[in-house]
Amino acid sequence: MQIQQNISLKAYNTFGIDVSASRFVTVTTHEELIDVLKGNDLPLLILGGGSNLLLTKNFEGLVIKNNFSGIEKVAEDADNITLKVGAGENWHNFVLHCIENNYCGIENLSLIPGNVGASPMQNIGAYGVEVKDVIVSVEAIRISDYTVCNFDNSACNFGYRSSVFKTSEKGKYFISAVTFKLSKTPTINTKYGVINSELEKMGVSNPTIKDVSNAVINIRQSKLPDPKKIGNSGSFFKNPVISSQDKDNILAKFSDAPNYVQENGTFKMAAGWLIEQCGWKGKVVDCYGVHDKQALVLVNFGGAKGNDIYQLSEDIIKSVKAKFDITLEREVNII
What we know:
Blueprint: E1 4-8, E2 20-27, H1 30-38, E3 44-47, E4 53-54, E5 59-66, E6 71-76, E7 80-86, H2 91-100, H3 118-122, E8 125-126, E9 129-130, E10 135-142, E11 148-152, E12 173-183, H4 193-201, H5 209-223, E13 231-232, E14 241-242, H6 244-253, E15 259-261, E16 267-269, H7 271-277, E17 284-285, E18 288-290, E19 298-300, H8 306-324, E20 333-334
Parallel strand pairs: 2-5, 3-5, 4-20
Antiparallel strand pairs: 1-2, 6-7, 7-12, 8-9, 10-11, 10-12, 13-19, 14-16, 15-16, 17-18, 18-19
Helix pairs in contact: 4-5
């Protein structure tokens, strides 16, 4: 373990923004992390896969890259298996590991970028599944006193793309591991019609969890850019949740507006559709812009600064507010 100085973070964020950190270190164990924290008096930034943040300036502090690894079986019975997974493990690789072993529950979350440690922080979700439904607990090290704490599912206070780690406890903990409980009896979730349509294209009538995963991968690859080729952080904005009355007001003017009723009677609107209606889809400004296949995705074609992307997001938020009276919320973390 070695603390490096003045390191470019371009390779450590999926937007490919070229800013630097005055100090940078990679940690793989609790002991290494505690040693680093004890010797640090600089501002702190913890990095996982770098897939959910926008860096707008050089970081004058210490960046800690979370490389905690390992997949450990902690419990198993006839119906379920419980796995403790290092926060630095790649999320999609973990999904594939589960599929290979016929562990069911996260196949709909295939190809989501980032590492396991970000999954509870963001409460990642896709195609009718949220990771909160399979998380048992989150192991996290309190930065102030190095105490290892365990947050059970309820203590994580999961919400839509949110958790306690993004709200009241933001910046206070280093997530080291996540424990998941997965089913050994596959329950296929294809309630999103687009998955069924893709399975039909694949010629699959009786899908396995691997088939569902492959369908999700096909869908995501067809409309989302590969961060290795075009800098992006996936969905930049959350889908806004509005009241029934506000939904009716919008449908009175835009009858084809996609909306999805929630358990509490509110309605989730499709942020990508709202952005597209404002004329942003496919718009290019210099070397950055909005993806031409998915308006939720802001892209860096190469050489853009973080502030360029941020200002683009500001302009999008203002235009959606003006047209629909809805205020979009960014999903990514702005540094």
